[in-house]
Amino acid sequence: MALHQDQLLHLQHCCLLSPRSSNVPTSSSVPDPAGAGRSYFSLLLQRLSIRSTFWPWEAVKVGPLTVSPMGLGTWAWGNKFLWGYEECMDAELQLAFNLAVQMGINLFDTADSYGTGRLNGRSEMLLGRFIREFPGSKKVCKNINIATKFAAYPWRLTPGQLVHACKASLRRLQLDQISIGQLHWSAANYAPFQEQALWNGLLKMHEEGLVKAIGVSNYGPKQLLRIHQYLEGRGVPLSSAQAQFSLLSGGTEQMELKSVCDDLGVKLIAYSPLGLGMLTGKYSPTNIPSGPRGLLFSQILPGLEPLLNSLNTIAQGRGKTIAQVAINWCICQGTIPIPGVKNLHQAEENLGALGWRLSSGERIELESSAAKVPRKMIQNIFQTK
Predict the structure, then answer these.
(1) Residue 114 annotated in active site
(2) Are 370 and 252 in contact (CB under 8 A)?
(3) Are 81 and 290 in contact, with CB atoms under 8 Å apart?
(4) Given 40, 85, 114, 219, the catalytic residue
(5) Of 59, 55, 77, 78, which is closest to residue 69 (Cα–Cα)?
(6) Judging by DSSP bridges, how do beta strands 65-67 and 60-62 pair with one another?
(7) Confidence of residue 290 (pLDDT cuts 50, 70, 90)
(8) Distance (Å, rounded) from C-alpha 32 to C-alpha 90?
């Protein structure tokens, strides 16, 4: 399968080649990313090699794992309702995945509920396929860490049912072991009787060697303390906690969670570090996305100008993009951001958030501007106290 013309034009731009250059690949000379694919990536990496991604000592420990300081999220992969996914996007998603791995990203976040309707589980299936078809070193593939989340559906009432869900994810991923098995949300808000069974399910999948580490998502400080104590009492550490974390998602609440994570030795993974796209500079009150995000954007964007101006000033001064500055702020807070990626351009832009750090003055400026935003991101409905 040949690359589409827009991908070839992007390649010309990435490699700083003129359209007339004899070195520019044609649609017939660039191979399928699922096949050899090396010439495409070697050319793209020529350009990226002049940028830093991250130094070896910037790798991060998450329980027994060593991961890149930024991961990538795959919520959009298979989600037609919110993100407009179409199956024709898979080829470019694969290019984005390959580029990220080539540049050292080894943490990819997914979930068994990602994918709408008949595409449920699509994100896991694509990740598994992309790992198998990766055109680079197999040693690199073995270093990829998949963190997947298991939904706390009302019918998952026993530990065995959560273990069954884990095995189903392993089949979709075509892996023998998941790096981080995470509970997608807590049942404490609506079915507290279910919570202990879910925790025991995490313990059982760890005991059976199905996961290397255990994590949670959408747990607030109090519930995080409870599950940490429960797991610790049974000799299993809680390695990670995922939460919405960005300049736009609120101050005191997210910093309290970060403080608790630090005290417990739990690594905080920051999802939606770009506020669903509001912190990219792409949108304005007169230019909002269609679909469900539009309503939220119309409520928040009118008051976002001070923060976007600060982001833009710092971005211009550093030769970065607004999105790269927003992601780097999350890294500077000691979290592992997992921005989503839907195409090659987004993957390349995300990589530009690595290899440098905002100064303390820049962070203070951003946080001061964020405090002036009248409306913050809404919290996940499953977020606990």
Answers:
(1) yes
(2) no
(3) no
(4) 114
(5) 59
(6) antiparallel
(7) confident
(8) 12
Range with the largest mean pLDDT of 17-26, 186-195, 246-255, 353-362: 353-362
Q: Which of 103, 223, 211 is nearest to 148 (CA)?
A: 211
pLDDT in tens, 105-136: 999 999 999 887 887 889 999 999 999 999 98
Alpha helical stretches, state H, 144-242: 159-173, 192-207, 221-232
Q: Give the 3-state secondary structure percentages of the chain, helix then strand then coil, rounded to 5.
A: 45, 10, 40
User: Would you state the structure tokens that stand for residue 193, as one six-digit string?
Assistant: 């009787």
Return the amino acid letter for 178. I
Of 56, 162, 144, 61, the closest CA to residue 98 belongs to 144
Q: Give the whole-angstrom CA distance, residue 169 versus residue 161.
A: 13
Question: Structure tokens of 131?
Answer: 């790992």
pTM of the model: 0.86
Q: By the 8 A CB rule, do 357 and 332 touch? A: yes
Closest CA to 266 of 218, 234, 220, 228: 228
